[in-house]
Specification:
The complex is a heterodimer. Chain A is mostly helical. Chain A has a single domain, classed as ACP-like (Non-ribosomal Peptide Synthetase Peptidyl Carrier Protein, Chain A, Orthogonal Bundle). Chain A is built from four helices and no strands. Chain A is globular, with a radius of gyration of 11 Å. The longest helix of chain B is centred in the N-terminal third of the chain and has 17 residues. Chain B starts with 5 loop residues before the first strand and ends with a strand. By secondary structure, chain B is of the alpha/beta class. Classes of the chains: A mainly alpha, B alpha/beta. Chains A and B meet through helix 2 of A and helix 2 of B.
């Protein structure tokens, strides 16, 4: 099981790959749309890549609740297979 | 329709022989082929395993995140358009964006994006299909992305007429200015179809050269041993504007975009009319629209794809369009070097035509070792100079579906 920091770091690399945001700015308190400028299509790409990487499923209905990097990290942490 | 004069003030290209206009033009004058054997594994079983890939990968030029949101055809278009836009001087000028248009064509559209996403769908299911697939693969995507990059709000268009598409885009831009809908239009074509599916399909039509052991000799327009076209990829873009607009800002003018002729054969979905009647009418219309006479024409960049039927039919059409006054006309096929860029061909070859008038020099047709005896015209087998004074040139493009588009340029 990946730790909180491992998830944050993996997510940061995905956001960097998809949207070109420097990975070190992808911190838990940052909003995907307001702070990191990740648009809705890029967000879908980030979610799908995260699902692949962490072996979780994030239904579309839950994606809209993932406002910050911290929200996403917490969701993935809870959804990870034990 | 007004008779507003329209001029070419900017050029951009990424082609199989160069990543810029300067490099492309130098390579064309030097007779350099962009053909090579495709080393990819997917090419192994194809009947035609040769193509002319771009000389410079667009990912070396574009920002990484920008590039990954574009189909390869969109990447080419953006590279060429940004070069043309800078070359025109408009990138640093005060532009009225509501009077700025785009017409950038593609023959096939985002086929590599479509098929790679289908591969993903089959392999991993619908969740892995990219949310960007539609805005990447739609045929208007290159035009729309160029429009976004330069802020075009007068209208953004994507004419589609197979291998005549690039020229049709130029004709569309000319109409936009003459109809008073825009002052400046960024026009051109792009194509990225070097993928096993279109290559297998073209080969199965009998359209592609199978000279797999000698790729640089594969594209040989008018030669007796021609056996089909060489698939190329890339984009070319021209900035055109009303002469009034260009003069007001003191722009450098390469040539005048004098006229365009668009006709249809209504003969066959894939074969050209053997008598070349539609092609003849297209050239005549372009000349009439440009106020030009056959004696004004000193150069033609021919469609001449290196197919057995098409090359000969076009020469017949040229002779008829010029009422037999062809002695003073130097004809070339730059496809002998670049291969056939399909929906970008007209744009790339119009660019070459404009530069031929601007520099008064015609690039050679390479591989023309033994000319087809049915062709009597003056074909350039080496670099040729054009006369000084007020002269004109034509660029022809013809497409599956029976589309014929001729563009007439006048020296500036």
């Amino acid at each position: 099981m990946a730790s909180t920091e491992e998830i944050r770091s993996g997510l940061a690399d995905i956001v960097n790959e998809v949207a070109g945001i420097p990975a070190d700015t992808v911190q838990l308190d940052k909003s995907f749309t307001d702070d990191l400028d990740v648009d809705s299509l890029s967000m879908v790409e980030v979610v799908v890549a995260a699902e692949e990487q962490f072996g979780v499923t994030i239904p579309d209905d839950d994606v809209k609740n993932l406002k910050t990097v911290g929200d996403a990290v917490a969701y993935i942490e809870n959804a990870q297979p034990a | 329709m007004s008779s507003a004069r329209v001029v070419v003030t900017g050029l951009g290209a990424t082609s199989p022989v160069g990543g810029t206009v300067t490099d492309t033009w130098s390579a064309l004058l030097a007779g350099t082929s962009g053909a090579r054997v495709l080393e990819e594994e997917w090419a192994t079983d194809l009947p035609a395993r040769i193509a002319a890939r771009v000389a410079v990968e667009p990912t070396e030029v574009l920002e990484r995140v920008k590039a990954r949101r574009l189909d390869r055809s969109g990447q080419f278009a953006l590279v060429a358009a940004l070069e043309a836009w800078a070359d025109s001087g408009l990138a640093d000028a005060d532009v009225d964006h509501e009077r700025l248009g785009v017409a950038i064509a593609s023959g096939i559209g985002g086929v590599t994006t479509l098929l790679s996403n289908y591969d993903m769908l089959r392999a991993k299911g619908p969740r892995l299909v990219s949310p960007l697939a539609i805005p990447m693969l739609m045929p208007n995507s290159p035009a729309a992305n160029v429009g976004l990059a330069i802020g075009a709000r007068a209208g953004v268009h994507t004419p589609v007429s197979a291998c005549a598409s690039g020229n049709e885009a130029i004709a569309h831009g000319l109409d936009m200015i003459r109809l008073g809908r825009a002052d400046v239009v960024v026009v051109g074509g792009t194509e990225a179809a070097i993928h096993p599916l279109p290559m297998a399909a073209f080969a199965n039509m009998g359209a592609l050269s199978r000279r797999n052991d000698d790729p640089t000799a594969a594209s040989r327009p008018w030669d007796v041993d021609r056996d089909g076209f060489l698939l190329g990829e890339g984009a070319a873009v021209l900035v055109i504007e009303s002469a009034e607009h260009a003069e007001a800002r003191g722009a450098r003018v390469y040539a005048e975009l004098a006229g365009a002729g668009i006709t249809a054969d209504s003969h066959d979905i894939a074969q050209p009319d053997p008598a070349g009647l539609g092609a003849t009418r297209a050239m005549r219309t372009a000349l009439v629209e440009g106020g030009l006479e056959p004696r004004d024409v000193v150069h033609i960049n021919a469609h001449a794809t290196s197919t057995p039927q098409g090359d000969v039919a076009e020469c017949l059409a040229i002779t008829n369009a010029l009422s037999g006054e062809t002695d003073h006309v130097v004809i070339t096929s730059t496809k002998s070097m670049t291969g056939h860029l399909l929906g970008a061909a007209g744009a790339l070859e119009s660019m070459a035509t404009v530069l031929a008038l601007h520099h008064r020099v015609v690039p050679p047709t390479i591989n023309l070792d033994t000319r087809d005896s049915a062709v009597k015209l003056d074909l350039a087998t080496e670099q040729r100079t054009l006369p000084a004074g007020d002269v004109a040139a034509l660029n022809n493009s013809f497409g599956f579906g029976g589309h014929n588009v001729a563009i007439a340029f006048r020296s500036a």
